[in-house]
Amino acid sequence: MSSKRPLETALYFWNHRSIPPKQVIPFVQTLEASNVVDHFWMWDVVAGWFPPSVWTEEFTPLAKFGDFDSVYDAFVTLGLAASATDKLGMLLGGTNALRHGPAELMQRAMTLADSTEGGAICCVGAGEAYNTIPFGYDRKLSIARMQDIFQIFRLLWESDGPISFDGRVIKFDDAYIGNVRGRRPSFWAMGAGPRLIKLAGQYADGWMSVAPNGITSPEAYAERVKEIKQLVEEAGRDPEKFRFGLTPTLLIHEDPDIVDKVFDNNVIKFFASIFGRVNQADWAELGVDSPFPPDYNYSLKFLPMKMTKDEMMATLGRTSRAAVEHCWTSGSPKEVAAKLQPYIDAGCDLMAPYDLLPAGLGSLEEMAASFQNQLELCRILKENNPGLATA
User: Fold this and answer.
1) Which of 5, 216, 297, 321 is 20 to 30 A from residue 383's alpha carbon, by CA?
2) Domain residue spans in the chain?
3) Helix 218-234 × helix 333-345 angle, to 10°
4) What are phi and psi of 154, to 5 degrees?
5) pLDDT tens per residue across span 51-82
């Protein structure tokens, strides 16, 4: 007999600079007390994906708290979070391969892993255009740097002395960060492209993606799980130790009329136009007209500060109601849990839900309700997936 891993969950903190950073402490304490959340989750970004012309009070009352780009540093926020829990894991989901060196990432991940019994997971992606190009980073180097970074992580952890490394981009010469070891942080690849999938199987400890935006269906997710496990095995590693995560984009509410109303909100609609399908060509399989040309990929091309209001409004005009509806997994917590279960059956063992409904309704009350709905979703998912024995 082998055992199926119990499902783990993670919830995200909106680390907006209108919120005092130490507010993360009661948030984490609430997560820990819930007993249905396993990881505190934070993105490492320096900018947001909404242009100033759409993130306005005309479209979302949340804009009264400031623009979408004003966020705190993820690692500092994770450190504050780790100080407030004894058992929650710290999930950086994720950072990118361009803005941090591998030694610095390893040092930060080791610090977080030793700060709580839940350890630390560091997801590394190629880096979206809006978070790299405006800040002087050459995104063409991202996959090559990812390959180097994952190899260096392993070398740094396994070596008890200085290491040298001659990679595709990164060179180390007798680099040393010490030999004291505590809990081993876990390093996952984050994304959906074929090169990243191959890299994940060869070098990473896990894989995280987004659905239905990057991975369009449970069937597609199952195919990726099978492919990655084969790559892991071919690399001489144990596929049963490899982890699989998912961030579903959600609109959660008990009232279907509220969800229906939110589908028409311009912030929600714009998100669907850019991010509803990472590869716009994927809309064709649904018979839906893509808001952008089929070869458009937001992570490669989208620069929100370059988009004028006229361009933003034209984008909204090209975005059908069908496209908006297909961008989200929506419904009550119970309904959403049922829709996510096939991904778990396909191999997902860490679910990190992301509910953007408050951006469409835009009030502090709705943000509080969204948090409770996500807790309830985590409760249902964990109750339904306790890690049953399988043949």
Assistant:
1) 216
2) 2-256+329-385
3) 40
4) -65, -40
5) 999 999 999 989 999 999 999 999 999 999 99
Model confidence over 315-354: pLDDT tens digits? 999 999 999 999 999 999 999 999 999 999 999 999 999 9
For residues 345 and 354, what is the distance between their CA atoms, to the nearest angstrom?
20
| Domain 2-256+329-385: which CATH number of 3.90.550.10, 2.60.40.10, 3.20.20.30, 3.40.190.10 | 3.20.20.30
SS3 179: coil
Predicted confidence at residue 390, as pLDDT, reads: 40
* Cα 117 to the center of its chain, rounded Å: 22
Q: Where are the beta strands (DSSP E) in the chain?
A: 2-3, 8-12, 39-42, 89-96, 120-125, 163-166, 171-175, 186-190, 206-211, 243-252, 329-331, 350-351, 354-355, 389-390
Neighbours of 389 (CB within 10 A): 8
Q: What is the pLDDT of residues 147-157, one digit of tens each?
A: 999 999 999 99
Counting Cβ atoms within 10 Å, is residue 177 exposed (0-12), middle (13-18) or buried (19+)? middle
d(CA 259, CA 12): 21
